[in-house]
Specification:
By secondary structure, the chain is mainly α. It has 17 helices and ten strands.
Length: about 400
Protein backbone atom coordinates (compact mmCIF):
# COMPACT_ATOMS: atom_id res chain seq x y z
CA UNK A 1 0.00 0.00 0.00
CA UNK A 2 1.46 3.37 -1.07
CA UNK A 3 0.79 6.63 0.78
CA UNK A 4 0.85 9.97 -1.09
CA UNK A 5 1.51 13.30 0.63
CA UNK A 6 -0.23 16.52 -0.28
CA UNK A 7 -0.79 19.93 1.33
CA UNK A 8 -4.00 21.69 2.24
CA UNK A 9 -4.84 25.12 3.57
CA UNK A 10 -7.07 25.07 6.65
CA UNK A 11 -8.32 27.69 9.09
CA UNK A 12 -7.23 27.44 12.73
CA UNK A 13 -7.93 30.02 15.44
CA UNK A 14 -9.01 32.49 12.76
CA UNK A 15 -5.80 32.05 10.77
CA UNK A 16 -5.13 30.15 7.58
CA UNK A 17 -2.30 27.61 7.83
CA UNK A 18 -0.93 24.87 5.57
CA UNK A 19 -1.00 21.31 6.90
CA UNK A 20 -0.02 17.96 5.41
CA UNK A 21 -2.44 15.18 4.43
CA UNK A 22 -2.01 11.85 2.71
CA UNK A 23 -4.15 9.63 0.52
CA UNK A 24 -4.16 5.96 -0.43
CA UNK A 25 -6.35 3.31 -2.03
CA UNK A 26 -7.95 0.83 0.35
CA UNK A 27 -8.57 -2.89 -0.30
CA UNK A 28 -11.71 -2.08 -2.30
CA UNK A 29 -9.94 0.45 -4.52
CA UNK A 30 -11.58 3.42 -2.85
CA UNK A 31 -9.45 6.55 -2.38
CA UNK A 32 -9.09 7.48 1.32
CA UNK A 33 -7.79 10.85 2.55
CA UNK A 34 -6.48 11.46 6.07
CA UNK A 35 -4.54 14.05 8.03
CA UNK A 36 -0.88 13.49 8.96
CA UNK A 37 -0.17 13.59 12.66
CA UNK A 38 -0.85 11.79 15.95
CA UNK A 39 -2.81 12.54 19.10
CA UNK A 40 -4.81 15.27 17.34
CA UNK A 41 -1.72 17.24 16.25
CA UNK A 42 -1.42 18.02 12.56
CA UNK A 43 1.88 18.17 10.68
CA UNK A 44 2.77 21.63 9.38
CA UNK A 45 6.37 20.73 8.40
CA UNK A 46 7.04 18.42 5.47
CA UNK A 47 9.78 16.45 7.31
CA UNK A 48 7.33 15.73 10.13
CA UNK A 49 4.78 14.48 7.60
CA UNK A 50 7.37 12.29 5.87
CA UNK A 51 8.43 10.77 9.21
CA UNK A 52 4.77 10.08 10.04
CA UNK A 53 4.23 8.38 6.67
CA UNK A 54 7.36 6.24 7.19
CA UNK A 55 6.09 5.04 10.59
CA UNK A 56 2.70 4.34 9.06
CA UNK A 57 4.23 2.31 6.25
CA UNK A 58 6.46 0.38 8.65
CA UNK A 59 3.46 -0.51 10.84
CA UNK A 60 1.60 -1.70 7.77
CA UNK A 61 4.54 -3.89 6.70
CA UNK A 62 4.66 -5.51 10.16
CA UNK A 63 0.91 -6.20 10.05
CA UNK A 64 1.22 -7.78 6.61
CA UNK A 65 4.14 -9.98 7.76
CA UNK A 66 2.31 -10.88 10.98
CA UNK A 67 -1.39 -10.86 10.13
CA UNK A 68 -3.92 -10.37 12.93
CA UNK A 69 -5.51 -13.57 14.21
CA UNK A 70 -8.63 -13.95 16.35
CA UNK A 71 -9.19 -16.45 19.15
CA UNK A 72 -11.78 -18.16 16.95
CA UNK A 73 -9.14 -18.74 14.28
CA UNK A 74 -6.38 -19.83 16.64
CA UNK A 75 -8.57 -22.13 18.77
CA UNK A 76 -10.23 -23.89 15.84
CA UNK A 77 -9.58 -27.60 16.51
CA UNK A 78 -7.45 -26.79 19.59
CA UNK A 79 -8.44 -30.04 21.36
CA UNK A 80 -8.59 -32.22 18.25
CA UNK A 81 -6.46 -35.36 18.35
CA UNK A 82 -4.04 -34.11 15.67
CA UNK A 83 -3.72 -30.48 16.84
CA UNK A 84 -0.31 -29.03 17.74
CA UNK A 85 -1.41 -28.65 21.34
CA UNK A 86 -2.59 -32.26 21.74
CA UNK A 87 0.52 -33.66 20.03
CA UNK A 88 2.67 -31.60 22.39
CA UNK A 89 0.65 -32.84 25.40
CA UNK A 90 1.18 -36.47 24.44
CA UNK A 91 4.88 -35.91 23.81
CA UNK A 92 5.18 -34.66 27.40
CA UNK A 93 3.42 -37.77 28.70
CA UNK A 94 -0.06 -36.34 29.26
CA UNK A 95 -3.00 -38.17 27.71
CA UNK A 96 -6.36 -36.43 28.11
CA UNK A 97 -9.37 -38.74 28.43
CA UNK A 98 -12.37 -38.42 26.12
CA UNK A 99 -14.47 -37.07 28.99
CA UNK A 100 -11.83 -34.46 29.82
CA UNK A 101 -11.63 -33.36 26.18
CA UNK A 102 -15.42 -33.12 26.03
CA UNK A 103 -15.48 -30.94 29.14
CA UNK A 104 -12.67 -28.71 27.86
CA UNK A 105 -14.36 -28.22 24.51
CA UNK A 106 -17.46 -27.10 26.39
CA UNK A 107 -15.48 -24.56 28.41
CA UNK A 108 -13.62 -23.47 25.26
CA UNK A 109 -16.95 -22.62 23.62
CA UNK A 110 -17.74 -20.51 26.68
CA UNK A 111 -14.42 -18.65 26.35
CA UNK A 112 -14.90 -18.11 22.62
CA UNK A 113 -18.44 -16.82 23.10
CA UNK A 114 -16.83 -13.86 24.88
CA UNK A 115 -13.44 -13.47 23.17
CA UNK A 116 -13.71 -15.40 19.90
CA UNK A 117 -13.95 -12.39 17.59
CA UNK A 118 -11.17 -10.45 19.33
CA UNK A 119 -7.54 -10.41 18.23
CA UNK A 120 -5.25 -12.54 20.38
CA UNK A 121 -2.80 -9.69 21.03
CA UNK A 122 -5.51 -7.29 22.17
CA UNK A 123 -6.93 -9.22 25.15
CA UNK A 124 -5.27 -8.69 28.53
CA UNK A 125 -5.26 -10.58 31.79
CA UNK A 126 -7.56 -7.87 33.14
CA UNK A 127 -10.07 -8.67 30.38
CA UNK A 128 -10.10 -12.35 31.33
CA UNK A 129 -10.43 -11.61 35.06
CA UNK A 130 -13.20 -9.04 34.55
CA UNK A 131 -15.16 -11.57 32.53
CA UNK A 132 -14.64 -14.52 34.89
CA UNK A 133 -15.55 -12.65 38.06
CA UNK A 134 -19.06 -12.02 36.68
CA UNK A 135 -19.75 -15.65 35.78
CA UNK A 136 -22.10 -17.54 38.17
CA UNK A 137 -19.59 -20.35 38.65
CA UNK A 138 -17.86 -21.90 41.65
CA UNK A 139 -14.16 -21.23 42.17
CA UNK A 140 -13.05 -24.71 41.04
CA UNK A 141 -14.77 -24.27 37.66
CA UNK A 142 -13.32 -20.77 37.26
CA UNK A 143 -9.85 -22.13 38.05
CA UNK A 144 -10.33 -24.85 35.43
CA UNK A 145 -11.20 -22.18 32.85
CA UNK A 146 -8.20 -20.11 33.99
CA UNK A 147 -5.96 -23.13 33.42
CA UNK A 148 -7.32 -23.49 29.89
CA UNK A 149 -6.82 -19.78 29.15
CA UNK A 150 -3.21 -20.07 30.34
CA UNK A 151 -2.66 -23.09 28.06
CA UNK A 152 -3.99 -21.14 25.09
CA UNK A 153 -1.90 -18.08 25.94
CA UNK A 154 1.23 -20.23 26.31
CA UNK A 155 0.62 -21.68 22.84
CA UNK A 156 0.18 -18.17 21.45
CA UNK A 157 3.44 -17.08 23.09
CA UNK A 158 5.36 -20.08 21.76
CA UNK A 159 4.21 -19.16 18.24
CA UNK A 160 5.23 -15.51 18.84
CA UNK A 161 1.70 -14.25 18.39
CA UNK A 162 1.70 -12.43 21.76
CA UNK A 163 4.54 -10.79 23.68
CA UNK A 164 3.85 -12.31 27.10
CA UNK A 165 1.57 -14.72 28.95
CA UNK A 166 -0.70 -12.85 31.41
CA UNK A 167 -0.48 -13.79 35.08
CA UNK A 168 -3.95 -14.90 36.17
CA UNK A 169 -4.68 -15.22 39.88
CA UNK A 170 -6.49 -18.37 40.94
CA UNK A 171 -9.76 -18.11 42.81
CA UNK A 172 -9.97 -19.19 46.41
CA UNK A 173 -12.79 -21.52 47.33
CA UNK A 174 -15.98 -19.51 47.74
CA UNK A 175 -18.07 -22.43 48.93
CA UNK A 176 -16.85 -22.36 52.53
CA UNK A 177 -20.03 -20.53 53.51
CA UNK A 178 -22.47 -23.04 54.97
CA UNK A 179 -24.84 -24.28 52.31
CA UNK A 180 -28.55 -23.82 52.69
CA UNK A 181 -31.07 -26.55 51.90
CA UNK A 182 -34.36 -26.68 50.05
CA UNK A 183 -37.46 -26.61 52.23
CA UNK A 184 -40.27 -29.17 51.89
CA UNK A 185 -42.44 -26.43 50.37
CA UNK A 186 -39.76 -25.62 47.79
CA UNK A 187 -39.34 -29.30 46.90
CA UNK A 188 -43.09 -29.62 46.33
CA UNK A 189 -42.99 -26.45 44.24
CA UNK A 190 -40.15 -27.73 42.05
CA UNK A 191 -41.55 -31.25 41.73
CA UNK A 192 -45.37 -31.12 41.45
CA UNK A 193 -47.07 -34.48 40.90
CA UNK A 194 -48.75 -33.42 37.67
CA UNK A 195 -46.39 -34.15 34.74
CA UNK A 196 -47.33 -31.06 32.76
CA UNK A 197 -46.84 -28.82 35.78
CA UNK A 198 -43.52 -30.53 36.50
CA UNK A 199 -42.25 -29.97 32.96
CA UNK A 200 -43.33 -26.31 33.00
CA UNK A 201 -41.49 -25.75 36.29
CA UNK A 202 -38.21 -26.85 34.68
CA UNK A 203 -38.59 -25.46 31.18
CA UNK A 204 -36.58 -22.25 30.69
CA UNK A 205 -38.21 -19.88 28.16
CA UNK A 206 -36.05 -19.55 25.06
CA UNK A 207 -33.93 -22.57 25.99
CA UNK A 208 -32.44 -24.61 23.13
CA UNK A 209 -32.80 -27.83 25.14
CA UNK A 210 -35.08 -30.52 23.75
CA UNK A 211 -38.02 -31.87 25.75
CA UNK A 212 -35.97 -35.02 26.40
CA UNK A 213 -33.10 -32.87 27.76
CA UNK A 214 -35.48 -31.09 30.15
CA UNK A 215 -36.99 -34.37 31.38
CA UNK A 216 -33.51 -35.85 31.77
CA UNK A 217 -32.36 -32.81 33.76
CA UNK A 218 -35.17 -32.69 36.30
CA UNK A 219 -34.98 -36.47 36.69
CA UNK A 220 -31.27 -36.10 37.41
CA UNK A 221 -31.92 -33.39 40.01
CA UNK A 222 -34.65 -35.45 41.69
CA UNK A 223 -32.30 -38.45 41.77
CA UNK A 224 -29.69 -36.32 43.53
CA UNK A 225 -32.31 -35.00 45.93
CA UNK A 226 -33.92 -38.36 46.75
CA UNK A 227 -30.72 -40.42 47.12
CA UNK A 228 -28.10 -38.04 48.54
CA UNK A 229 -25.66 -39.08 45.81
CA UNK A 230 -22.84 -36.70 44.91
CA UNK A 231 -23.10 -34.86 41.60
CA UNK A 232 -20.00 -36.64 40.28
CA UNK A 233 -21.62 -39.99 41.10
CA UNK A 234 -24.89 -39.15 39.32
CA UNK A 235 -23.05 -37.70 36.30
CA UNK A 236 -21.08 -40.97 36.07
CA UNK A 237 -24.19 -43.16 36.50
CA UNK A 238 -24.62 -45.87 33.85
CA UNK A 239 -27.51 -48.27 33.29
CA UNK A 240 -25.40 -51.26 34.35
CA UNK A 241 -25.30 -49.87 37.91
CA UNK A 242 -28.97 -50.70 38.51
CA UNK A 243 -28.88 -53.93 40.52
CA UNK A 244 -32.65 -53.84 40.78
CA UNK A 245 -35.06 -51.28 39.41
CA UNK A 246 -34.96 -49.42 42.75
CA UNK A 247 -31.35 -50.10 43.78
CA UNK A 248 -28.18 -48.47 42.43
CA UNK A 249 -24.67 -49.76 43.05
CA UNK A 250 -22.70 -46.53 43.42
CA UNK A 251 -19.30 -47.66 42.13
CA UNK A 252 -18.17 -44.84 39.83
CA UNK A 253 -17.44 -41.15 40.04
CA UNK A 254 -16.10 -38.26 37.99
CA UNK A 255 -12.85 -36.79 39.27
CA UNK A 256 -12.01 -33.07 39.22
CA UNK A 257 -10.29 -33.74 35.88
CA UNK A 258 -13.62 -35.05 34.58
CA UNK A 259 -12.42 -38.63 34.27
CA UNK A 260 -14.79 -41.47 35.14
CA UNK A 261 -13.17 -43.80 37.68
CA UNK A 262 -14.44 -46.90 39.49
CA UNK A 263 -13.90 -45.53 42.99
CA UNK A 264 -15.68 -42.87 45.00
CA UNK A 265 -14.63 -39.68 46.74
CA UNK A 266 -11.65 -40.16 49.08
CA UNK A 267 -11.30 -43.70 47.79
CA UNK A 268 -8.59 -45.18 45.56
CA UNK A 269 -8.46 -47.70 42.75
CA UNK A 270 -7.34 -50.42 45.18
CA UNK A 271 -10.11 -52.98 45.56
CA UNK A 272 -10.06 -52.61 49.34
CA UNK A 273 -10.42 -48.82 49.24
CA UNK A 274 -13.03 -48.02 46.61
CA UNK A 275 -15.81 -47.12 49.07
CA UNK A 276 -18.60 -48.53 46.91
CA UNK A 277 -22.10 -48.46 48.36
CA UNK A 278 -25.74 -49.01 47.41
CA UNK A 279 -28.67 -46.59 47.50
CA UNK A 280 -32.39 -47.37 47.55
CA UNK A 281 -34.59 -45.32 45.23
CA UNK A 282 -38.11 -44.22 46.14
CA UNK A 283 -40.89 -45.28 43.77
CA UNK A 284 -41.23 -41.81 42.26
CA UNK A 285 -37.55 -41.71 41.30
CA UNK A 286 -37.91 -45.18 39.77
CA UNK A 287 -40.91 -44.00 37.73
CA UNK A 288 -39.07 -40.90 36.48
CA UNK A 289 -35.97 -42.90 35.49
CA UNK A 290 -38.14 -45.57 33.83
CA UNK A 291 -39.82 -42.88 31.74
CA UNK A 292 -36.43 -41.49 30.77
CA UNK A 293 -35.30 -44.95 29.73
CA UNK A 294 -38.45 -45.41 27.65
CA UNK A 295 -37.83 -42.09 25.87
CA UNK A 296 -34.27 -43.10 24.95
CA UNK A 297 -33.95 -44.63 21.48
CA UNK A 298 -31.45 -47.31 22.41
CA UNK A 299 -29.71 -48.10 25.65
CA UNK A 300 -26.53 -50.10 26.17
CA UNK A 301 -25.42 -51.16 29.66
CA UNK A 302 -22.52 -48.70 29.67
CA UNK A 303 -24.53 -45.73 28.36
CA UNK A 304 -24.81 -42.78 30.71
CA UNK A 305 -28.24 -42.43 32.32
CA UNK A 306 -28.09 -38.63 32.21
CA UNK A 307 -26.46 -37.29 29.07
CA UNK A 308 -26.65 -34.84 26.20
CA UNK A 309 -25.83 -36.10 22.71
CA UNK A 310 -24.32 -39.26 24.18
CA UNK A 311 -21.92 -37.41 26.48
CA UNK A 312 -22.16 -37.04 30.28
CA UNK A 313 -23.60 -33.85 31.74
CA UNK A 314 -20.87 -31.27 32.46
CA UNK A 315 -20.50 -29.64 35.87
CA UNK A 316 -20.86 -26.22 34.26
CA UNK A 317 -24.18 -27.09 32.59
CA UNK A 318 -25.45 -28.78 35.75
CA UNK A 319 -24.80 -25.74 37.95
CA UNK A 320 -25.82 -23.11 35.39
CA UNK A 321 -29.11 -24.74 34.43
CA UNK A 322 -30.02 -25.60 38.04
CA UNK A 323 -29.40 -21.97 39.05
CA UNK A 324 -31.57 -20.73 36.18
CA UNK A 325 -34.42 -23.04 37.22
CA UNK A 326 -34.23 -21.82 40.82
CA UNK A 327 -34.37 -18.20 39.64
CA UNK A 328 -37.35 -18.96 37.42
CA UNK A 329 -39.17 -20.38 40.45
CA UNK A 330 -38.21 -17.42 42.67
CA UNK A 331 -35.88 -19.43 44.90
CA UNK A 332 -32.92 -17.29 46.03
CA UNK A 333 -29.81 -19.36 45.39
CA UNK A 334 -27.22 -16.57 45.82
CA UNK A 335 -27.98 -15.19 49.27
CA UNK A 336 -28.82 -18.64 50.65
CA UNK A 337 -25.86 -20.36 48.93
CA UNK A 338 -27.92 -23.09 47.30
CA UNK A 339 -25.86 -25.19 44.90
CA UNK A 340 -26.17 -28.66 43.42
CA UNK A 341 -24.34 -30.01 46.48
CA UNK A 342 -27.14 -28.51 48.61
CA UNK A 343 -29.32 -31.38 47.38
CA UNK A 344 -27.09 -33.81 49.28
CA UNK A 345 -27.39 -31.63 52.38
CA UNK A 346 -31.16 -31.52 51.92
CA UNK A 347 -31.41 -35.31 51.65
CA UNK A 348 -29.23 -35.81 54.70
CA UNK A 349 -31.25 -33.32 56.77
CA UNK A 350 -34.63 -34.81 55.85
CA UNK A 351 -33.66 -38.47 56.15
CA UNK A 352 -31.92 -38.05 59.50
CA UNK A 353 -35.35 -37.62 60.99
CA UNK A 354 -36.67 -40.77 59.31
CA UNK A 355 -34.09 -43.59 59.41
CA UNK A 356 -31.33 -44.55 61.81
CA UNK A 357 -27.98 -42.81 61.45
CA UNK A 358 -26.05 -45.96 60.63
CA UNK A 359 -28.23 -46.80 57.62
CA UNK A 360 -28.11 -43.18 56.46
CA UNK A 361 -24.31 -43.19 56.54
CA UNK A 362 -24.27 -46.39 54.51
CA UNK A 363 -26.42 -44.85 51.79
CA UNK A 364 -24.75 -41.44 51.54
CA UNK A 365 -21.21 -42.77 51.99
CA UNK A 366 -20.27 -40.75 55.06
CA UNK A 367 -17.50 -42.05 57.31
CA UNK A 368 -17.54 -41.20 61.01
CA UNK A 369 -15.07 -41.97 63.77
CA UNK A 370 -17.08 -45.07 64.60
CA UNK A 371 -17.39 -46.26 61.01
CA UNK A 372 -14.15 -46.52 59.06
CA UNK A 373 -14.89 -49.41 56.70
CA UNK A 374 -14.24 -49.00 52.99
CA UNK A 375 -16.63 -50.91 50.75
CA UNK A 376 -16.01 -53.09 47.75
CA UNK A 377 -18.89 -54.55 45.71
CA UNK A 378 -19.47 -57.59 47.92
CA UNK A 379 -19.52 -55.62 51.16
CA UNK A 380 -21.83 -53.01 49.61
CA UNK A 381 -24.30 -55.70 48.47
CA UNK A 382 -24.15 -57.38 51.90
CA UNK A 383 -25.69 -54.19 53.33
CA UNK A 384 -28.59 -54.17 50.83
CA UNK A 385 -31.10 -56.29 52.85
CA UNK A 386 -30.54 -54.02 55.84
CA UNK A 387 -31.12 -50.88 53.76
CA UNK A 388 -34.21 -52.28 52.02
CA UNK A 389 -35.94 -52.40 55.38
CA UNK A 390 -36.21 -48.61 55.03
CA UNK A 391 -38.02 -48.85 51.66
CA UNK A 392 -41.46 -47.87 52.98
CA UNK A 393 -40.03 -44.93 54.93
CA UNK A 394 -38.15 -43.67 51.86
CA UNK A 395 -41.31 -43.87 49.75
CA UNK A 396 -43.34 -42.00 52.35
CA UNK A 397 -40.83 -39.13 52.25
CA UNK A 398 -40.29 -38.75 48.50
CA UNK A 399 -43.45 -39.98 46.79
Amino acid sequence: MKYHLYQRTVEKNGKKIKVWYYWFYDEKGKQVRKSCGENGKQCTVKKQAEAFIERLAQKKRIEEENPKITFNDFCDGFYDEDSDFMIKKRSHGTQLSNNTIYQRKHYLNLILSEFGDRYVDEVSGYDFDSWLVKLPLCSSVKNHILMMITEIEQELYSKRLIQHVPLLERYKRNDTKEKDILSIEEIKKLFPLNETDLYNRWRIPGSKLSKYDDISFYTMIFTLLSTGMRSGEVRALQWNQFIEKNVILVNANFTRDNERVNFLKKGTNKSSQRKWRVVVLPDRTVEMISKLRFLSNYIKPDDFVFQRDGEPITTFFLLEHFTNVLKKNNIDSDTRNITVHSLRFTYNTIMRQQINEKDLRLMVGHVSAGMTDYYDRSIALDKLPQLLQNEDIINNVWN
